[in-house]
Design a protein that fits this description.
- Chain A: Interacts with MinC and FtsZ.
- Chain A: It comes from Paracoccus limosus.
- The complex is a heterodimer of chains A (about 270) and B (about 260).
- Chain A has about 270 residues and is an alpha/beta fold.
- Chain A is about 40% helix and about 15% strand.
- In chain A, strands 3-4-2-5-1-6-7-8 form an eight-stranded mixed β-sheet, sandwiched between helices.
- In chain A, helix 1 packs across helix 12.
- The N terminus of chain B is likely disordered.
- Chain B is globular and about 50 Å long.
- The chains are: A alpha/beta (about 270), B alpha/beta (about 260).
- Chains A and B meet through helix 5, helix 7 and helix 10 of A and helix 1 of B.
Chain lengths: ~270, ~260
């Protein structure tokens, strides 16, 4: 039984694409056949984060419009056996997405894949709506900051009303979980940042994971590697735990620090690892 | 699913079969009480009020209550007033509780004269049904089958951007109400959770309606059209387990004992 998971947030720049890349890579590492789809038509960032931008020939919009077959557009990841990327078009805009087209592609993907991760664009317009419309589950990416929390709350309202499952009207709903990103435990303790409890109290959904603010995230993005593959990164560890919870494992919630502690010797020598 | 995508086509098809439908519908209107002539002082006070909460009034239908405004009588007065209100983006459409003279002037100014005393209206289908049953037994059965003013129960958090409207009774929310959300009821509002959004109770004019909540952090509170914003609430207002009610035309917030 395949699952469609939308990674969404409302607000831009909170880490949707980074999280989509990390989660899909994490699922693939666990042996699940996974595809990640870029719904951000016109901006096309996912293929860069995944490091496959130079291999894009056909895209999601080509498939929707029947100009290419799905198999031609899917890009197989070079690092992970079970991971595929469906990039989007840079030259079209979001009006090229249609409900029927998205459904057709998702139905076809459901036959082959265990997990279909939809990387939603920011906002609550057409692209974001269609990214969440056919989802079974949602990962709501939120920064510990008031405007991000407000936007996530808005998105949760849409997940409960404007999706296929919600419109069916049989009481089923998209299962939404919170992924708190760019969290800095030290600043939160000082009261400069919202605490995990504050965010959970407002959003009232289960917590999937807490991803610490880390320099390794930006470095990984620039290199075109999902951050989860960087073993030295605290963020990678946190994403791994989140993926474990996403597939239903019970993993204790820990707030990791962003960058791994330097070893005793390295600290003595004053060098960075 | 296809039908969802072609929604427009579907409605057009339906429309070609059935050119129109008549339905009774509730709308909430704001009543503006005038206490004298519509002079400069009145407009100054009005402008100040509008400045405080500009979005609250935007495009909201508005009724002029003329009960205490005997001074306003000339045939042009009402037309001028309506024009001045529309210039402030207030959608005035009717008058209420005016004298016969004022009613005439209102009609001349293109305003609707609403029946005096409150604003409760009854859905159209219920009006027509009330005439039909001849047999009292049948009438009783019909009355039993007909839903009474009902309470609306929401067991999920009310999210930013959502509006929940209980048009026939109380509204009970189990869970938080986020800022940016709006909960509206013709009766009381109960929130078993933190109230951060806007809560409007007694919107059909019920001044006895109350708002109850576990934790008060509301952006706006209103009962029977009398409202206050979070900024206007005193700093020492109780915040936990409170009720909000009207007393002497003022909103009061008190801790539940």
């Amino acid at each position: 039984m395949s699952k469609v998971i939308v990674v969404t947030s409302g607000k831009g720049g909170v880490g949707k694409t980074t999280s989509s890349a990390a989660i899909s890579a994490g699922l693939a590492m666990r042996g699940h056949k996974t595809v990640v789809i870029d719904f951000d038509v016109g901006l096309r960032n996912l293929d860069m984060i995944m490091g496959c931008e130079r291999r894009v020939v056909f895209d999601f919009i080509n498939v929707i419009q029947g100009d290419a077959k799905l198999k031609q557009a899917l890009i197989k990841d070079r690092r992970l056996e079970n991971l595929y990327v469906l990039p989007t078009s840079q030259t079209r805009d979001k009006d090229a997405l249609t409900k029927e087209g998205v459904k057709k592609v998702l139905d076809e993907l459901r036959e082959d894949f265990d997990y279909i991760v939809c990387d939603s664009p920011a906002g609550i317009e057409r692209g974001a709506h269609l990214a969440m419309y056919y989802a079974d589950e949602a990962v709501v990416v939120t920064n510990p900051e008031v405007s991000s929390v407000r936007d996530s709350d808005r998105v949760l309202g849409l997940l409960n009303s404007k999706t296929f499952l919600a419109e069916k009207g049989d009481g089923s709903n998209v299962k939404a979980q919170l992924l708190l990103t760019r969290f800095d435990p030290a600043r939160s303790a000082k009261g400069e940042m919202m605490s995990v409890q504050d965010v959970l109290e407002i959003l009232a959904i289960p917590l999937l994971g807490i991803i610490p603010e880390s320099t390794t995230v930006l470095k990984a993005s620039n290199e075109g590697t999902p951050v989860i593959l960087d073993e030295t990164s605290g963020a990678a560890k946190a994403y791994m735990d989140a993926v474990g919870r996403l597939v239903g494992e019970q993993i204790e919630m820990k707030v990791t620090s962003g960058d791994q502690r330097r070893g005793f010797l390295q600290r003595l020598l004053g060098r960075t690892a | 699913m296809q039908a969802q995508g072609k929604n427009n086509g579907a409605t057009r098809r339906v429309a070609s079969v059935k050119p129109l439908q008549v339905r009774g519908r509730f709308f909430t209107a704001i009543a503006l009480h005038l206490t004298g002539r519509a002079d400069q002082a009145f407009f100054d006070a009005l402008d100040e009020k509008l400045l405080q909460t500009p979005l609250f009034f935007e495009n909201a239908p508005l009724v002029l209550d003329l009960e205490e405004s005997q001074g306003l009588g000339g045939p042009r007065d009402l037309a001028d007033l309506a024009e001045a209100l529309r210039a402030r983006r207030l959608s005035v459409f009717g008058v209420q509780n005016g004298t016969a003279e004022q009613a005439e002037a209102a009609i001349a100014a293109g305003l609707v004269v609403l029946p005096p005393g409150g604003g409760r209206s009854v859905p159209l289908e219920r009006v027509s049904r009330d005439h039909s049953p001849r047999d009292p037994k049948q009438a009783l059965a019909a009355a039993a089958a007909e839903p009474l003013p009902t309470t609306r129960l929401i067991t999920q958090p009310v999210r930013s951007g959502q509006t929940i409207f209980a048009d026939r009774g109380d509204l009970i929310i189990i869970g938080p109400v986020s800022s940016g959300a709006e909960i509206i009821a013709s009766g009381n509002i109960h929130v078993y959770g933190r109230l951060r959004g806007r809560a409007l109770a007694g919107v059909n004019g019920d001044t006895t309606a109350r708002i109850f909540c576990n934790a008060l952090d509301a952006e706006l509170l209103a009962i029977a059209g009398l409202y206050t914003t979070s900024e206007a609430l005193a700093a020492d207002t109780p915040r936990q387990f409170v009720q909000v009610f009207l007393e002497d035309e003022k909103l009061r917030v008190e801790t539940l004992k």
